[in-house]
Structure formats: C-alpha cells, structure tokens
Amino acid sequence: MHYFLVDNGSLRANSVLQMRRIGLSLAQSSGVSVVPCGLMHSHKIDPSELEGEPAQSMQRFLESGEAESLDEIRVLPFFLGPSLAITEWLPENLNAWKAGKPGRRRYRILDPLYREGDERLAQAVSQLCRETIGRTNLNRPRVAMVDHGTPLIRVNQVRETVGKEARAIMGDEIGEFVTCSMERRPDPQFDFNDPLLETLLARWVREGAEEILVSQFFLLPGRHAGPGGDLEKICRPFEQSGVRIERTGNLGEHHLIGDILSERIREDQAERS
C-alpha cells in the first residue's frame, strides 16, 4: 500500500524536488512506499525541470486508471495545520473516488504535522533560528516568525502556539519575537493574521533595529519562501536601506519533521494490525 505524501501543490520545480527527497528519506526510514505529490498543479511542471520525471498531483491521480485499480488510499498531509485543502478539498475528491465502487473502497487522511502538546515544530523552528544566528553571527536579533496567512483562525492558532513555544525555548538568545503573516484578506474578520511582515519590518526599522531574523514557518520553498520568492522581495527594500535581515531555511527537511511523519505512519500501521 502507498502512502501519498501531499502538499498543496506547486508550479516550482525546487518545491517538488524537495518533496521527493523528503519522501525518499521517509520511505527508507519507515519501510513503506511513499508517493510525494501535490494536491493540484504539480503535474503541470515541465518534466525537464524535474530530472525528466513528471510530478504527480492527487487531482490528476484520482482521474487515472491507477486510482481506479485501488481499493484503499492513505494520505499523509505535509501541512502544518488543518488547512481547507485537507479538511474539505481532499475529502470531497476522495469521496468521489470512493463512490466509484461503493462498499469496496476506503481511505484515511492522517493528521497534519501539528498536534496539541507536541513541541517538535517549535523545537525545529528554534534550531533553525539558532543555526542561522550562529552561521551569520547575529547578536540577539529581533525575530519575525512568518507564515503565509490564512482565512482560518484554527490554522492561525497553530502558528501562534508554535511561536509561543519557540520564543520560550530561545529565551535571551534573541530580542523581540513576533509572529506575523506574509499576506491576508482585507476584511476585519481576518485581523488575527496581523501584523503583516512588511508592516512589522517597517516598525522595527523606525525603532532603529539593526539585525533582524525572519523565521520562515514554511515547509517548502515554492514561490513564497524560496530563492527570489515573495519573502525575499518583501525584505529587500529594508535591506537596501541598511538593515541586516537574515532568513532561516524552511522546515521541510528538518529531521524532526521526518520524525513526525514516521510516527504518523507507525500509528496508522498499528491501528491496521
């Protein structure tokens, strides 16, 4: 049986290639078949950008003959929290697949990476911050922990909880610590995303900050957190004004993320036995 390791899907080759590395490592450590794929879009990438191997997406897979031949699907979400992509889009499409053979097909969507009481995400965030501080010789920088932004407060609470835990872990090693979003919807009901990274950086510059660390609460590079991505573009004007801004790597290939994914598989297999 395959475990489908799924993210939102990206049109950026570097995101797909990183997912493949994570999937291969997970397969080796867990001893099961792991198929990395996006929910949507990934299949549109030119295979020449992917070492000649086409990317997969659940959208395309569920329309394929291979899906028709299966009676069971296991999905391992590569998501930090309960995004609509895995709570609504994925069940809707898997239910349509299931309806093709009523009573014979079944599926299970495992938990996302965050669970209440598990501080491994905060530990990973803290370790990446410490590594960047050490590598770049920052001195107690202000830290902006940034995610994309979300219309769902339950997803936002994952960032807030992990940020609070990470702040406690790092203690006096850093200066001010603020969680923030890359972007948000304008309506007042989405104010929980504030502050925006751009707004926060502007405030810190006005206050005379000289060293800032942007902690990227992203699993994969893609068009937001990768080279030349949106976060780099947001930071660039402030760097050009003389402020030193460093960014951590993404969380995806941190060993603690691999540990969580392996644990999800072990739990699922134990329940099946």
Task: Write a structural description.
With 273 residues, the chain is of the alpha/beta class. Helix content is 44%, strand content 16%. The protein is built from ten helices and eight strands. It has helices spanning 13-30, 58-61, 65-68, 84-98, 120-136, 153-170, 197-206, 222-225, 230-240, 255-272, and strands at 2-7, 33-38, 72-77, 106-109, 142-147, 177-181, 211-216, 244-247. The strands form two sheets. It has a four-stranded parallel sheet, sandwiched between helices. It has a four-stranded parallel sheet with strand order 6-5-7-8, with helices on both faces. Strand 5 (142-147), helix 6 (153-170) and strand 6 (177-181) form a beta-alpha-beta unit. Helix 1 crosses helix 10, helix 5 (120-136) packs across helix 6 and helix 5 (120-136) packs antiparallel against helix 10 (255-272). The radius of gyration is 20 Å and the shape is elongated. The relative contact order is 0.15.
Instruction: Specify the helix fraction band.
Output: 40-55%
Order of helices and strands: EHEHHEHEHEHEHEHHEH
pLDDT averaged residue by residue:
96
What is the straight-line distance between the termini? 14 Å
Q: How is the main sheet built? A: 4 strands, parallel
| Overall 3D shape | elongated
Can you list the strand order of the major beta sheet?
A: 2-1-3-4
Structural class: alpha/beta
Low-pLDDT runs of 5+ residues are none
Based on CA atoms alone, the radius of gyration comes out at 20 Å
Roughly what fraction of the amino acids lie in strands? 15-25%
* Number of DSSP strand runs: 8
Tell me the number of helical segments per DSSP (H or I, 4 or more residues long).
10
